[in-house]
Design a protein that fits this description.
Number of helices: 9
Shape: elongated
CATH architecture of the largest domain: Up-down Bundle
Strand order of the largest sheet: 1-2-3
CATH topology of the largest domain: Alpha-lytic protease prodomain-like
Order of helices and strands: HHHHHHHEEHEH
Radius of gyration: 26 Å
CATH class of the largest domain: Mainly Alpha
Helix content: 55-70%
Length: 327
């Protein structure tokens, strides 16, 4: 049964409830001020709530146990959620631009800017704190969904800060057109954020190589490399939400028994889980060493050596992802 009291679920639920409250405050600020810039901020808060609700549902789906139809689990739903959020943000940005351009041509008088600025500052501060919490948790658990939610709220917070600066300029200059200009400026930021989240979600769905993650893993294995591990190649990592599936080929001495091979594979699996700090599944294909492997083999006590050791080949991202033995 899914644990709806998990830290991730509780944090995302808190973000959703906070988003509902902040949405009401932002629309109240717009009602008092009639500001297009504040309206753009309020409209994006609708996206926050919709995306937060879908993210909460996606976390529940992702936590479901594996079954016959989903042997790798349900974690891919996190990429769908991040893509959904990115798409909504993108559309919100476009709608804000349309509304702001209209009001550049047909200006509206602004009212009660002091109250609007105070309410905007309050909502921006809460979004900043919640965004930092979601982003930190997402990085810790390698959850693309929570990182997307965190980045979204942080961009909303920075947009609110810029909005406040702009409206202060409107208040003291009297240039009402600045309100719509500011809305267009921050709509551009919103559109870029949406596009970036869409791009990241599609990369996850398409199993694009996460080079930074692979480099971390390879460096960790190289730092604690056993002399029995002659080489590591054809290394791949597939992300299922916060869960990682690792495939690789490991060259071991040809005379190792099944039990010895299993022991070495278990060492790599434990190192990967220890370093990545998340749910990791490792599938290792064992290759027997060949005579030419002796030249790069670090096993000094090998009784079957046929060639002298000539060079240590350090494991790197570049040679670990190739589908060929090191020689």
């Amino acid at each position: 049964m899914t644990n709806t009291f998990s830290p991730d679920f509780r944090l995302q639920r808190t973000a959703l409830l906070l988003g509902l409250v902040l949405m009401g405050i932002k629309f109240a600020a717009w009602w008092f001020t009639n500001s297009n810039a504040i309206l753009s901020d309020a409209l994006e808060s609708i996206i926050n709530v919709l995306a937060g609700a879908f993210a909460l549902y996606s976390l529940w789906i992702a936590a479901q146990p594996r079954d016959r139809n989903h042997p790798y689990g349900h974690g891919k739903i996190e990429f769908v959620s991040a893509g959904f959020e990115g798409g909504l943000i993108f559309l919100a940005g476009i709608s804000i631009v349309v509304k702001a351009v209209y009001n550049l041509l047909h200006p509206q008088q602004l009212e009660d800017l002091d109250l609007g600025l105070l309410l905007t500052l309050l909502t921006g501060g809460f979004n900043f704190l919640m965004g930092r919490s979601l982003l930190a948790r997402g990085k810790k658990t390698r959850s693309s969904l929570m990182q997307a939610s965190g980045e979204h709220l942080l961009s909303d917070a920075w947009s609110s800060l810029g909005l406040i600066i702009g409206l202060v300029l409107v208040k003291f200059s009297g240039w009402i057109w600045l309100d719509s200009a500011i809305a267009i400026l921050f709509a551009g930021i919103i559109i870029y954020t949406g596009f970036r989240l869409l791009r990241s979600a599609l990369a996850g769905i398409m199993d694009e190589t996460d080079q930074d993650l692979l480099k971390e893993l390879v460096n960790s294995l190289e730092a604690q490399r056993s002399p029995n591990w002659i080489d590591l190649h054809n290394l791949r990592v597939i992300k299922y939400g916060s869960q990682l599936h690792i495939d690789c080929h490991l060259t071991l001495p040809w005379y190792f028994s099944n039990r010895e091979c299993h022991t070495e594979m278990k060492k790599i699996e434990n190192l990967a889980a220890e370093h990545l700090g998340t749910s990791v599944e490792v599938f290792i294909h064992v290759d027997p060493c060949l005579p030419e492997s002796c030249r790069v083999c670090l096993k000094s006590d090998c009784a079957e050596r046929q060639n002298a050791f000539t060079e240590r080949i350090n494991w790197t991202f570049e040679n670990a992802i190739l589908d060929q033995k090191h020689s």
